[in-house]
């Protein structure tokens, strides 16, 4: 007989508080907590980050190779002459677009792992595939977001930066709240507008960290990448909250000779 008791609860904000702007978003607190999460989960989280990076690079270069057969020669000529052949930038854009769309479910999986760390849960590398069950809606969200950013970039580039910031939580809303893609984009945008200045500062600092990491031959990315995902997870938790489930198993006195009380039995906590 199963005597387990389940209880759902929400940790952090909610959609209502996010849309009303009644959520906490202290820049220093977000960075401090994200750094603590990065250090605590560094060894267990890094393999997933590496797998995602390898996958994205493979998709990027395959997409580029299908368009340009002599990629190596082009980069060698660019190093010598500082010139790129006509149309090559368009090929780079298509390759970048391809890897972002195709790898979106795995990117969502890594984001979900970081979100779990933000609520005190541990993860394993295989959870990088946790976003695969949301493949279609996540790809739709990514596709629509990239198309809108691309159009905005042609008109007013600063609007493209704004949209990339405003849509940053849409993927997690699809996966964690099971919200439809277009609704997720709209909710993410409205919630971001409530704390736009704080979000802009946070992601501007992260962009600076990425640039600094690249200046040192990319070595710093081993810390910056997990830090970035943890920042995203903490922001999402503070904005929208994370649904969790507590599963408690009552103590059975007949099978225990130690006289342990029910209150001493630890509950298990899962993502709902």
UniProtKB/TrEMBL annotation:
UniProtKB keywords: Membrane, Transmembrane, Transmembrane helix
Region (Disordered): 252-272
Compositionally biased tracts (Polar residues): 256-272
Chain segments annotated as transmembrane: 48-68, 88-110, 131-148, 154-175, 196-229
Protein name: Proline and glycine rich transmembrane protein gene in bax
Gene source species: Vibrio zhugei
